[in-house]
Design goal:
Strand content of chain A: 15-25%
Oligomer: homodimer
Radius of gyration of chain A: 20 Å
Number of helices of chain A: 19
CATH class of one domain in chain A: Alpha Beta
Structural class of chain A: alpha/beta
CATH topology of one domain in chain A: Rossmann fold
């Protein structure tokens, strides 16, 4: 009985999958926030290097991975695909459950897949320093790691509530040489304008980092999710999953992942979505998001800013409103008002399904998973585990031998305070009322309707 | 350029290596603390199951690994062997540095290799609950995980200073269903007698756990290091290392690991020591211990208790004295007054070398390693990394293409407070004076001299 499927190092993908090439019609363009006109590469050059801007707008179906990036991927990739025999037995389900585990990276999540690529292209462009935001601390630590690998400086604006909850993530960022600020700070105009939201949010932290990057020539900004080039880099996950499932002699009926900004889920599913489009496969795709930040399930499909203050281009996406400040739930990586436009378009088209999971249900599922499979999951993929268990139980109900692929995007070693709170019965299920949600939506920027 | 060597799951070892069979002469027996006579299996039956007692005294050269144990090993084994290309480049050394990384286990260290085996044999013997001590928290979390896998209860006495420094290790133990006490407690006679040492020590925590196990029929004790059967279980590390280095086409000139109780280092080197004895290989073996708890480098070779209060059999080993309370250094897993008798015998014979490493030098080496290889090491293997870097620099000095194998026994995700202290310049190098050390040695129990 085989448990782990690990590809040989030589089978780390040699190119990233650009799903944009396979989608019918033209994607909705981002808009310049000043003019309302489609944003071009020139809108992005103050904060991104040309190598990444080209990827952002590319319509090629494959983008070659530079050798320098693959060499660093080799430190932890290919990541294992694991058959959850013990969880299947616990659920007494005929479903076959596999999970692709990205927690083996030095930063403990999928985030370095893009961080390493972004650091590489910035280094190539002669940039000296990268600035970014981080929610749960996973992106910040991943970028700090990647910058260290390429000799770049790294400065991180960390969402206030995560900064307080996760001091050890900060120490991790510092161990790789990065510096960390608690956002909102008084170092930026954006931060000072949000002093009344001391818990912070990803949107605020993004505004701060973009401001710092825009003001300096040798400093760029790096975003850990949402944008096309970030989703692109993450497709190593899905490509390896396809190859490893081939080793197992199976193909997924459903692929499940968690959605914060969307890059982990996009990276997992886009190679499978392409197989649906090109080869007529019929795999279902299920994104799990927190009930306390329900972008895909309760948001509005509209043009909105990527940040809180309104510095970024307007992006077509499901949004809760750019000044929506999510409750301080423990899955910090899922606290974002929007989602990747490319992923939102697939939801809009009905190609991707979404479900909202309450925090306590996610932790309950995570503890059950840990009891069977050993690994203690991050709070973010815990949401996907809950959805996976529901799928497996539905398969049992239906008497189907359903093949489920779960994206286990990271471990929970830096989230044990949240587990302690769960064990102590102190976790709350926070939800927003319709009125509260409408309040933020009333402040959407003026832009063409896309709903 | 290959970086990672990962064996196929089918190559998880099918038996453990018992080095006892290959050592010349009879090993010195443990002694009953009451009678001073050699301790037999009957001295151990109150706290250990017969399956483990048989392994403790076995002279067979191989012990078969039960299928049930191998099935659980499959969740993370074989662990990767990684060529430290980037560290070699940083040191500009002709040495080839490989590290065997045990941090991929769910508990983050090598400890589950023995915990799973011990839980299995106790379950087979009809035991309901295991009690143990833990220093850094790694053994306690490993045993909690293993007990969960076999449906056993788990109770952990955690060294006071680690309990305070590592709340997230506690949450991890609890996530797998175990319960945790801060040792010394007032739950046991042993704990109450040591109330004047509030920082605790491994020796005190062992006394407490043994006391609880000895008082109950369906409860046994589990030790995470020192004993023959624990070292035996860990030999999966060395066996996999030999096979993976074969994939790399190399064989180590020197093997380096950290030594606390000795099981990680023993598990790494015993298969190689056997190859020295049987096949005439000439590999050197170097154990790195903390300068603040320098058992092998400054201790006395004598019979001593394994615990502080004097409940265990007397064991022949290097010791700092059973009531030596080590300074609260951050490498909690290395704070033990003695070392595995089997390992001590090899040091006594000159087959194994030892070196003492100061705490700040260990962290400096760990940060350097993390900057090159990504992985943030636990404070314990950080000591071995410092010794490895010294070996690699010596090879450079000598102009030798030396092949070095480093045992990277675990990650440092639960030790980031120590890294934060290092970054803040707050770590101190604690050492004991000769007078302080002599003080504890003056209280060695009466027993035949073996020095």
């Amino acid at each position: 009985m085989t448990t782990k499927y690990v590809l040989d190092e030589s089978r780390i993908p040699t190119s990233w999958v650009n799903l944009m090439a396979d989608l019918p019609g033209e994607p909705l363009p981002p808009l310049n926030p000043g003019t309302g006109q489609p944003a071009g590469p020139e809108d992005l050059t103050p904060i991104f290097p040309m190598g990444l801007i080209e990827q952002e707008v590319s319509t090629e179906s494959e983008v070659e991975i530079p050798d320098e990036v693959r060499e660093i991927y080799k430190l932890w990739r290919p990541t294992p695909l694991i058959r959850a025999h013990r969880l299947e037995r616990e659920l007494d389900t005929p479903a076959h459950i596999y999970y692709k585990y990205e927690g083996v990276s030095p930063a403990g999540s999928h985030k370095p897949n893009s961080a390493v690529a972004q650091a590489y292209y910035n280094k190539e462009a002669g940039i000296r320093k990268l600035v970014t935001e981080t929610g749960a601390g996973q992106w910040g630590s991943a970028l700090s790691l990647a910058c260290r690998m390429f000799g770049l400086e790294c400065e991180v604006f960390m969402v206030g509530v995560s900064y307080d909850q996760k001091p050890y993530r900060r120490a991790m960022i510092e161990t790789w040489g990065g510096s960390v600020h608690r956002s909102p700070t008084d170092l930026t105009d954006a931060g000072r304008s949000q002093a009344s939201h001391p818990t912070g949010s990803l949107g605020i932290a993004i505004s701060e980092a973009v401001e710092v990057a825009a003001k300096s020539d040798d400093t760029n900004y790096a975003l850990g999710s949402v944008l096309n080039h970030v989703c692109l880099h993450q497709t190593v996950i899905g490509q390896e999953s396809i190859a490893a499932m081939e080793m197992a002699g199976e193909y997924p009926d459903v692929v499940v992942g968690c959605v914060g900004g969307g890059s982990n889920f996009a990276g997992l599913i886009y190679p499978f979505v392409r197989a649906n489009l090109r080869q007529g496969k019929t795999t279902r795709f299920l994104g799990a998001e927190p009930a306390a930040c329900p972008t895909l399930t309760r948001g509005t499909y509209a043009y909105d800013f990527g940040d809180t203050v309104g510095m970024t281009p307007l992006m077509p996406m499901y949004t809760l409103g750019h000044d929506f400040v999510p409750a301080p739930l423990h899955a910090g990586g899922l606290r974002y008002h929007g989602d990747a436009p490319s992923l939102c378009a697939l939801v809009k088209e009905g190609i991707v399904e979404a479900t909202a999971v309450a925090q306590t249900a996610a932790f309950e599922a995570a503890v059950r998973f840990a009891s069977c499979e050993g690994i203690i999951p991050g709070p973010e993929p815990a949401h996907a585990i809950k959805a996976t268990i529901d799928e497996a139980l539905a398969a049992k109900e239906a008497g189907e031998e359903r093949v489920i692929l779960l994206g286990l995007s990271g471990h929970g070693h830096f989230d044990m305070a949240a587990y302690a709170a769960y064990h102590a019965g102190e976790l709350e299920d926070l939800e927003f009322s319709e009125a509260e949600m409408q309040d933020a939506l009333d402040r959407l920027p003026e832009a063409p309707s896309i709903a």
